[in-house]
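Recall that a protein's primary structure is simply its ordered list of amino acids. Everything else, from secondary elements to tertiary packing, is in principle encoded there. The following example makes that idea concrete.
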Amino acid sequence: MDYLSFLPQTAQVDEILAIRQKRLEWAEQQKKGFLRYRMPCERLASFRAGHIDCTGDRVTIGADNEISDHDKNTIREDLRAFMPWRKGPFSIFGIDIDAEWRSERKWQRLLPVLPDLKDKVIADIGCNNGYYMFRMSPFQPRLVLGLEPTIQHYYCFNALNGMAGLPNLHIDLLGVEHLSLFPACFDVVFLMGIIYHRPSPLDVLKDVYTALLPGGTLILESQAIPGVEPMALFPEKTYAKVPGTYFVPTGTCLRNWMQRAGFTEVELFCSHPMSAAEQRRTDWMVFESYDDFLNPDNPALTVEGYPAPHRVFLIGRKE
């Protein structure tokens, strides 16, 4: 069933369908950069898991004894086609995927403030491979919609949920910039690891506010600099080697942004320094990771000389 049927009449359906069609035509090009993800997704579509468990730290789709050794090797190779795996961990038919991020730690930090998700319509903005969407599924939401403009993650989620078959999880090739097409549509919006990649963070927060139903909740997680002053770093070129980073705020600054965007009951409920125990290289992500982003002589600084990143978690509501 198309996820649009779960949304209220306020959704700009015609515009969403038009953009979706254009994005799908782009994604379905017969070019190597697209086929490298689409083909393994199509092959994995022939497998359907009997055992699914999204309640633990490791999202489990399929048990080891459900498939033959030959099929397990085939599945492993197709899953490795989606490397680098950024979010996880997963277990797929007994194949353990140790992603770059220990995403279960972030989820554990959210649990104490998690609103009631049962029968709710939820958006996960920049959902990546859907790890957090799978973690939401045991709470019985009516719909979790992942907005993800990246081909790699779009096909990876479709491969995973093609095997899991969870009918209330959906993804579309849209980004945070398309939130204006969803006015008053969502009970809960998750915006995690996104806002510092946007050149106009306050506009993003205003769009999220508009996309929420009255009484709705935003859960926001972000990279941050340490400190209590209401300020943000604007790096000259890169921050921790990432060129697409714009404003890196303190938690206080981010709280002020949320309040200025209209959110009430804003709470900064968690703040912690980043570490290589949470973001690191693995067999499923073999490129540079957290340790490579720091000054080797002073790990309190990035390679550019900026304060090393913290992570902050905030919650706010729309009246």
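The helical segments are 13-27, 32-44, 69-80, 103-110, 131-136, 151-164, 201-211, 251-260. The chain has one domain: 3-34+102-317.
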